[in-house]
Amino acid sequence: RSAADGDDLLWSLEKRNFGVDTVTGEQVEIPLGERMLIAGMSGAGKSVASRPMLFEASEGDTNALVIFDFKKVEGRLWDHRARVVTTAEDALALSEELVEEMTERLDLLPKGKDKLTPTRERPRITVVVDEGAEVISAAKDALVGLESVARMGRAASIDLWWMTQKPTIPDGIPKQIAPQLALKICLAVSTPTEARVVLGEDAQAKGWTAEDLDYPGYALVRAGKSRKPHPVKVRYMTAEQVIALPDRPIWSRYAEPAAPARPVFTLVKNGPVEWDEDASVYDTAAPAPVAVPPRPDYAPTAHQPAPAAQFVTGPVRPRPVAAVPAQVAPAEPVPAEPAPAVTNRDRVFAAIRSGARTAKAVTEATGLNKGTVSREVKALTEAGSIRKTDDGLVVAAAGEVSA
Known about the structure:
The protein has helices at residues 46-57, 74-77, 88-108, 132-138, 143-152, 192-199, 239-244, 344-353, 359-366, 370-382, and strands at 19-21, 27-28, 36-39, 63-69, 83-85, 124-130, 158-164, 183-187, 218-223, 232-234, 265-266, 310-311, 320-321, 386-387, 394-395, 401-402. The protein is α/β, with parallel strands linked by helices.
């Protein structure tokens, strides 16, 4: 018999922990704010076991969830609560965006504090890589950013959860990432070697024998010395329950308020650079881009006409006195309104408006990387600010054509 036998293990808002210790009957909680490795062979229940944790990571005003999911199955259940990327281009763009956010947060970290406190404006971001080997195989360039997040993200409240069913292959758990994942959740694996890779070289000697676990739905949770190698029966959260959860705001550094309409330009393909027409965007309705602020203007100095000629009266013949212009103090210049922050999207649009025609030209004009340029071009296209044609030209809204 198991100490978990009295619990039906079905997830609910009243029973929203990870699972039940089969030896002690203890309710097992997995806290947010940890860098985590989740492993298990195909059929062990890894996706189902992660759902209660993904719920917590996407719940509340101070939590945000992003998911890399190239299998395009589990992530789709969460796309109303999480930003989900499924292509190499979007994976690279998101990894770079996370590094930008992390760097900015670390720069803002108050002196004497070693970790940023999540807020509504800067929520805790849980970064889930679902089947890491697949993501790295298809989007190798995204690995650099994910490695940075693994090493430095915790202080910025950006936490990486790495999921894999192939822990022993080269990209199953990348070498730069593996040492950073302090909390290990291991469902059933095929061999003792896989158990050691996930749970540590001393796994077998200390009783962490994940290769002997029943499956699906049983896991070992190793977090420092606080837990013993007791199997945990995980809670079962159905796909229907996930889909029925209320929507949550989708995180992005580039979420922007709507701006006044501006002229429409057309960006076209030219040369070897490819724009992916089908690449997904983190939000189905891309926010309208913010117009590049014009150069601030100052109010001109006021001018006052000279008064009419004056005359001296008396017995002599009147003689006109030279007109003397009134002394007018110079008007105070009207200070310009502070210019709004120029975003990456502003820079891309300004480059296109200035004559950049191709991805390469926009990249060189803005200094942004190709992934960021591609994402912003796509958002501008969806917002109607630019159009793509097949004639190799950029056409202004007024119909002027330039080569």
